Every structure is written in C-alpha cells, then in structure tokens.
Amino acid sequence: MNHYSMLTDPGARYTDNEDTVAADPDQNIWLVADGMGGHAAGEVASAIVRDTFLAQMRQGTPAEEATLAAHAAVVAAAQHQDGLEGMGSTLVAAAISEAHAHLVWVGDSRCYLWRNDQLRVVSRDHSLVQSLIDDGQLTDETARDHPQRNVLTQVLGLGEPRPETHRLPLLHGDWLILCSDGLNDELTDAEIASRLREVAGNVGVVAERLIADALAHGGRDNVSVVAVAYEGPDAESEQASGTAESRAADESRGWKRWLASPPLLGLGAALLVFLIFLYFDRGIG
Ligand code: CA
User: How far is the CA of 11 from the centre of ligand 1 (A)?
Assistant: First the structure.
C-alpha cells in the first residue's frame, strides 16, 4: 500500500476548475489532467482523458496506447457535441509496479521525484519554452517569466500528440509529485522542495500544503497535486547504481577483496622472496 494525497483547487482567479486528479490505489495508478477550451469544454476534456485512460489501464492496455485512446475520445467528443470544438487536455500519469514508476505524459503537467531531500523533474514539458530551453535560447530562470510560457507543443484532443514515457526505478521512501502548471508556475522547484522538507515524511498533507502555497503566491490558475509515497522494495537497478557514497564504499571493498585474493597473495610472496634473494645475493657477492 502506497500512501498518497491528492487535491485540486480552482485557484484565486477562477471559479471553475478544468483540472482533474484521480487515483486507483488497487491498480497503483495516479494522474493529473489539465483541460483547456472555451466555456466548460476544458472540464469535459480533462474528465474524458481521466476516465478513458483509467478504463484502458484497468484492461491492461499499455500506458502509451491508453493515452492515445484518451486523445481519440476527446477528438470524437469535440466532433459530436456543439461547443466542445478546440478542447484539449494534458495528462501526466504514474503506474507503479515491480519497483518502478511507469510514467506517461502529454503537455506541461509534471512529474517530480523527491528522493533523499532532493527534488528533480522527471517529465519534460511539451511546451514552447521547453523547446527554447532545449535549443539553448532560454534558461530555466528566464523561461519562468516568458510571455508564452503556457503555449503547449502537444495536447490530447488536438493535432497528433506523441505521448512520452519513462520507466523510473524506485527506492523505498521515494515520493512522486504529479502536478498541473498551476503549481510550478507559482512555486519554484526550491520552494516546492522546501515545503516537502517541512512536512517531514508526512505525504498525507503534501497536496493540501503545496496548493495552499500556490494560492498564497497568487493562485492565478487551477492547481492540482497528487503526492505518492512509494513503500515497496528498492528497484535492483537502483541498488546497483546506488548513491555516490555507497558506490565509493563498494569500490573500496572491491579493491580490498582484490588485494586479498589468493593469486595476488602468492605473487606478492614470490616477489618478496625474490627481493630478499637479490639483497642477499648482492650483499654476499
Ligand atoms: Ca493550467
């Protein structure tokens, strides 16, 4: 059982909420979807994405295909219902199995990993500013204030999205933080990390605290957070790679083992006998 908390809030500027969050703890699936579109269309799009994705995943469909099915469902709904044309939604989802998080995303909703008091973004935004960062035309800092920071390069329901996936090896105690841009537009990674440090291991309050922080910083958009604490065994690949310290310790242990190996001890002894022989040979001669 992985403990988690999740919450979504319309924010300070809007009364409606186009974001949605969902969990299926039995299947170990969590997600955030951030809808967009006129009138109530954004809400419709994110709800379709949530329901289609979860239904597909429960049937054992691979995450990438489940995401494309969600895209097709949004496209179909937009075609058949008046007022829904042009609607779309992001998706970021994590399915945990066999000590790995299987991530899939489209758009700029994010997945962070919180491990050993360090926060890092695991997903990569499908956004204009992210492409500019990748091209070296923007830095993370200048991107924060870019006027087009909300322009997406991929959305479910529009165009031909290519869902991105990532298989993340987990360690016991890791937290996954899924969020909509309403969180990371208001809070820097350092601010999110400082809040996570403050809750001292209590994942149950994370969603509520981070959303309160986003609202305190202005809450200019709908804001959603899902925080999941991974409580299973360490992934073997992570044990092997380990931290820098444990790797150094392993290497030093390996070195000692090598020195103590029988062939080397034999070689050392032979060398010593040879040196003693040389010494006495010279000394006597
Ligand atoms: Ca948003």
Answer: 10
Q: Is 171 in a helix, a strand, or coil?
A: coil
Q: From the CA of 36, how far away is ligand 1's center (Å)?
A: 8
User: Distance from the CA of 183 to the center of ligand 1, in angstroms?
Assistant: 9
Query: Per residue in 221-251, is it b (16+ CB within 10 Å) or e — as a string?
Result: bbbbbbbbbbebebbeebeeeeeeeeeeeee
User: Domain 3-239 class?
Assistant: alpha beta
Around ion ligand 1, residues with a beta carbon closer than 5 Å are 34, 180-181, 221
Q: What is the pLDDT of residue 237?
A: 79
**Domain ranges in the chain?**
3-239, 242-284
**Using one digit for the tens of pLDDT, what is the confidence trace for 47-60?**
999 999 999 999 99
Distance 45 CA to ligand 1 centre (A): 13
Q: Compute CA distances 272 → 258, 268, 275, 278, 285, whole Å.
A: 19, 6, 5, 10, 20
